[in-house]
Give the backbone structure.
Amino acid sequence: MSAIGRTAPPCAEGFTLIEILIACILLGVGVTSVIGLLLVSLQRSRQVTAMTTMGPLATAAASLYMANQQSGTVDLPNSNGADAFSFTSPFALRIERSTASGGETDANGLVTLKISLYDTPERRDAEQGALGIMYIRQYGRTP
């Protein structure tokens, strides 16, 4: 056979298996990093929303706490459904007299209350990951 009558073998069309695997790995790494950033962003936005809501909510809860002459710790909403007063919130609160002031009324008649904000009552009961903690000085008597 002469070299003149020969033609080159046909080129294969498409991608090789290794090229497809590398493309899948790169896509997987990219998607994983985007999902991770999205989850962090969602958690941060929830925390910012909670902190924005916490100011007026904590002030109202502290006023209710002192108006009803509560002592010790009050969880809102209460786990057993028996609240000392009616309270509705998308978050779970824990109100207690701050140990920083000894829980007692100072010479000016002020009590320091510690208000912790949780996303669910279950996390509050387990004392896991408060979204925010606020201290409020409130006029009141030691019960």
User: Anything to note?
Assistant: The chain has two helices and four strands.
